[in-house]
Amino acid sequence: MMKNPYVTAAIEARMVGRADRVQLNQDFVLRRWLQLATADVRELMGIHFVPCRHCWGVDHSYQFTDLELRDAAQRHRREQLELPLKNRREFDELGGGGYTINREPCRGPDWVDRMVHQYASMNREPPLGLIATADHSCPACFGEGEMRPWLADTRNLSPAAAILFNGYKITKDGLQVLVRDREHAEDMLAQHLGLTVQRNLNLNLDLFKLSEEQLNDLLRQVVDSGLIEAEDVEKVAG
User: Fold this and answer.
1) What's the CA dihedral at 59, 75, 69, 50 to 10 degrees?
2) Among candidate residues 192, 181, 158, the one with its CA nearest the CA of residue 30
3) Domain coverage including residue 131
4) With the CA atoms of 77, 80, 82 and 86 taken in that order, what torsion angle do they form, in degrees rounded to the nearest 10?
5) What mean pLDDT value characterizes the chain?
6) Is pLDDT larger for residue 226 or for residue 180?
7) pLDDT at residue 18 above 80?
8) pLDDT of amino acid 127
9) Does some domain include residue 181?
């Protein structure tokens, strides 16, 4: 039945009609490939550098969050009540409260100079946001801060990042974010634009056993692959 041209034409017509109904066409597929190929993985996950506990503490001593400071003071008070009056000590707030990760590390001009030299050694321009946040760098972390990984709220992803996101799984090392293959999308776009040549011809054929139609199809593949020019094929055929 599939050799009947009326049957194949009817099937193709139904497939075209279905594609129109669901708006599935080449433009749709290309847009999906383009979104996947250009998606920025930094929308899904990344690394932030936050202040260490000594960056902004008083005299760069260990800094508590406000809740930690309250709990530490209460715990110290209970412990002191169990001691004789002469052995009791006042609570040491160290660097005080107010620690937050929503602040830049304590970075001085020396840290900025160090980063400028580091980028220069890689022949790269330093980022525009490379500025000092204090008159000197934290003596504990030298202005580097602490590295903290983060994961995005998947409810707020851009369309491209939503296509890139492929779920997650829990491993013994923690949460692993799964992403789709962007390189495959890039390859498909390159093929569509004619930037790559597929050389997947099967040349281990007995040409004498091929039909006229099969020979013509093989020649078309050879021409499409760029192995031979169409003019040369016509010369040989002539």
Assistant:
1) 90
2) 192
3) 45-151
4) -150
5) 82
6) 180
7) no
8) 81
9) no
Q: What amino acid is encoded at 81 in this protein?
A: L
Query: Of the candidates 1, 23, 213, which has an alpha carbon nearest to the alpha carbon of residue 10?
Result: 1
With CA atoms as reference, report the closest residue to 33 among 176, 193, 167, 153.
193
CB atoms within 10 A of CB 120: 11
Copy the structure tokens of residue 133: 């946040």
Examine the fold and report which residue of 135, 151, 167 is the final residue of a domain before the chain moves on: 151
Residue 234 pLDDT: 58
For residues 78, 82, 87, 92, the Cα torsion angle rounded to the nearest 10 degrees is -10
107 vs 139: CA distance, rounded Å = 10
pLDDT tens for 39-86 read 888 888 889 999 999 999 999 999 999 999 999 999 999 999 999 988
Q: Note the pLDDT of residue 56.
A: 96
Asked if residue 133 lies in contact with residue 127, where contact means CB atoms within 8 angstroms, the answer is: no
Q: Count the neighbouring beta carbons within 10 Å of the beta carbon of residue 144.
A: 17
Domain boundary among 120, 151, 182: 151
Predicted model pTM: 0.59
